[in-house]
Amino acid sequence: MVNAAGEVIVPAAGESATVEERSFLRRFEPLFNGEASWETTAVSDPVPSVSSESAPRAPLMSAVLRGRFSSERSETASAVSPVVNSGWLPWFAGRELHFLGWACNNDGLRYGVELEIAGVLASLVVAFPNGFEQGRTILLRDGNGNIVHGAGGDLLNKEQSHLLADISLAPTLPHWRIVVMEAPGAVVGGRMVTLVAVVLCMILVVAIMVSGWLLLRDAYRHQREAQTKTTFVANVSHELRTPLTSIRMYAELLHEGRVASDEKRQHYLTVIVQEAQRLTRLVGNVLDFSRIEQGRKTYHGEVVDLATVIEHVVGLQKERITAAGIKVVIDVADDLTVWCDCDSFEQVLLNLIDNAIKYGASGGQLSISAISMGDKAVLRLCDNGPGVPLRLRKNLFLPFHRADDSITATQPGCGLGLSISRRLLRDMGGELDYEPNPDGGACFVLTVPILGESDETA
Fold it and tell me: Strands 365-373 and 327-332, how do they pair?
């Protein structure tokens, strides 16, 4: 990664560069030193290169080999800016050709990825025809004149054939050429052969450019995902530290006997219980996410009375619901049962009720209703909060996503609750969707199977 001033950011200051990093930086040193442009250079104006064996030790390279860099790593929790410029640069180091794809964002940070020459050749070889007219051979030659690939018959020597077509692949592959040779005595069809060579040249160029674009897109996507996960780790650390601080502080006050008032003691104990429940939810979400990602999450299906489990979960959150001034209205038939893993279903309800408490309007109402529709039970949890803006709904169930993902967000959270809830329900044969509340606010719609596998086959 390179910043707007051309300084290398990764590896960080104080870290020793690996052999691969030193080799990479030595190859592309003129770019980092400002001696060469990041824009694609025409063949008539060769890109400055550096020998892989004897490169001059510029100040940057010396710093790299000592393991020190001139700039610090950027803040890992910062948001990723969109790409505003990108390019695909062929580059000679010594006598070897390399390809460097790069993208630059609004912050001036430049992300680069090097495409191995073997990957380029794999794309080129596929584009070559399997067969060719008898007596003719089509060759791909590199910048040193070596035959990289050939098709159409024996690879003829120059003395045994004459040239029909010679087409350059510049600037995509500088100094590389497509050559069509014809054996003596073959029927001459130069115009058709030239046309085939031109079409093949176009295919090769498109193959290289598409491969480069896909590779660069994947590199930027991986960088964006890594940035998102880094933000998630920072948020989780903050979420763990906050309740632990409250629990420790109040527990120490009670342990030392410094709280004389019974009312205060009861309040402190209530806070400890609530913060412990908050920790339990957070750790449960992280563990569930890990198990789901690794395919190790197990479910134990059973018949669950819907009204009973809803009342139980609401009871667990009674103190928080009362403190938020929210009125809960439950409208579920007494005889409505579903087939699910009870613990996982309770986790889903806890996550959704937790969202309603955090984002629902103070003094508003949380309505929980359920009806039977065929072989599914449909639940609706609707609040009177601000709802979810249209622009954020498409990412609502993505892991690590939060409308406000800064550590100082007004509401705590790590962006896993809704994602895990949907995946848990889907694994149990259900679904979780969002729809705006007609009366204002958010409404989450859950579908849960009524019959289990044993019931269906009975």
Answer: parallel
Between CA 311 and CA 314 the distance in angstroms is 5
Rounded to whole angstroms, how far apart are CA atoms 384 and 303? 32
For 294-430, where are the E strands, in sequence order?
A: 301-305, 327-332, 337-341, 365-373, 376-382
Instruction: Note the pLDDT tens digit of each residue in 281-332.
Output: 778 777 777 787 777 788 889 999 999 999 988 988 888 888 888 899 999 9
Residue with structure tokens 């609040």?
A: 383
Instruction: Give yes or no for a contact between 379 and 435, defined as CB atoms under 8 angstroms apart.
Output: no
> Could you tell me which of 35, 7, 4, 8 has the C-alpha nearest to residue 104?
4
* The total number of residues written for the chain in this structure: 458
The answer to whether 338 touches 364, Cβ cutoff 8 Å, is no
* C-alpha dihedral (364, 370, 373, 374), degrees to nearest 10: 160
Question: CA-to-CA distance for 306 and 148, rounded, in angstroms?
Answer: 68
CB 177 within 8 A of CB 167: yes
Phi, psi of 126, rounded to the nearest 5 degrees:
-60, -30
Distance CA 169, CA 407 (A): 51
State yes or no: pLDDT of 146 exceeds 60: yes
Domains identified in the chain and CATH numbers? 12-41+81-115 (no CATH), 205-297 (1.10.287.130), 300-405+414-449 (3.30.565.10)
**Cα–Cα distance, 218 to 353 (Å, whole number):** 37
